């Protein structure tokens, strides 16, 4: 099969497997729901407080959307259950091509939905802020909207690479969810310098109007990309070396 045909087949899998497109749609649904609930209830009060950061606050809901993005990336484990991988490799014997096409389909889909989610959440959220609303022309807002979409795609790829390595969505979700929700806060109290280089903390610097510290918005996103790249390489090694 040609690379184009393999990529097309992976896209068909995403469209046809309920767990895949359901978790992908949940990225947008979850983020918008949290945006409406958060900004619709206390948005203006939050904007009035001293030290408010309107750009970062506008993308607060991405913290929840990233969980759905990780679930989408982890849903790739369905390929490794019930002999499905053997069927796929029978059709595409070149494992590297198969893996590259799968991750490209996952990353591309997550990027499109991530950008849609990021921009939509920003624009919808501003509807609740009245006089405190900002536009995409506000310093850092457009960068944050684009960076937020890229960040969600990188987190999906991070999860996908780990799932290819561990062959278990449950294991990946059990590892990443506490890692993202608990570990950064522990490290923040122990060693701020270390916490800055964790995938979520580094990547979310792009959501700040004026990030503090040695990492800038795009260099922070590059750190998250490095985490994703390591996970993807580990998954590629596993797919190449292990039995189907």
Features:
244 residues, mainly alpha, 12 helices, 75% helix
Account of the protein in words:
This protein has 244 residues and is mostly helical. Helices cover 75% and strands 0% of the residues. The protein has twelve helices and no strands. Helix 2 packs parallel to helix 6, helix 4 (62-74) runs antiparallel to helix 6 and helix 7 (141-166) crosses helix 8 (169-181). It is elongated and about 60 Å long. The two termini are 19 Å apart.
Point out poorly predicted stretches.
Answer: none
- SSE order in H/E notation? HHHHHHHHHHHH
Number of strands: 0
Radius of gyration, taken over Cα atoms and rounded to an integer in Å: 19 Å
Q: Which word captures the global form?
A: elongated
Strand percentage lies at under 5%
Number of separate helices: 12
Most strands sheet:
none
Derived from helix and strand composition plus strand pairing, the structural class reads mainly alpha
State the distance separating the first and last CA atoms.
Answer: 19 Å
Mean pLDDT: 85
**How much helix, percentage-wise, in residues?**
over 70%
Q: What would you say about this model in short?
A:
It contains 12 helices and no strands. With 244 residues, the chain is mainly α. The chain is elongated, with a radius of gyration of 19 Å.
What topology does this entry show?
Blueprint: H1 3-16, H2 18-48, H3 54-58, H4 62-74, H5 84-91, H6 95-126, H7 141-166, H8 169-181, H9 183-190, H10 192-195, H11 199-203, H12 217-241
